[in-house]
Amino acid sequence: MAIWQLTFTMVPTVDLNLLGIEDRLPREVFDDFSFWNSQYDLAFFEPFGELLEPNKSWSKDITLYGNTNSNCIEIYSDEGKISSVSFRIDYTIDYSVLLTKLIEFCTLNAISILDENLYVLQLNFTTISSVIENSPQVEKYKTLSGINQTNKLPI
Which residue from 122, 141, 129, 48 is spatially nearest to 87, judged by alpha carbons? Predict the structure, then answer.
C-alpha cells in the first residue's frame, strides 16, 4: 500500500450481527473468523468491473479491479472460496464517485465497511470521507509533500 492510499475492509453485515459487533471488530476475531461463507462467489463482485477496470494481480488468488498504485478493489479467494474483500482509496485524486458507488453496493447487499482500525463505519459518504481526510496517512502525506495542513485533498 502506498502512502497516498487508505485501505478499507468489506464484510457481510450478517456476520457482524452474528458476532454481536456494532462498533469495533477485535483484531483476533477479524483474523480468525471466516466472514465470506460459501453463499458468495466471484460473480457476486462482478459489478466492481463497472467501477474499476479488471486487472491482473500478482497472485492467482486475488481478483483485482483498478490499479494497486491508485484506487483498487481486491477480492482474495482460497480454493475458489472468498476469504476477504478490501478496497484502497487514492486520496490524491477525486475518489467521490468510486466511494459513492461502493457505499451504494454495500448498502444494497448488506455489507459493512471497516476502517484500518476495524471500526464499523456508517455507510455514508460524509463519514467515510471524514475518516480519509483525518487519517494519519493524509497528515503524513501533506507534511511530506508540503501541502498546507488546512488545504483539503481533491474529492
Answer: 48
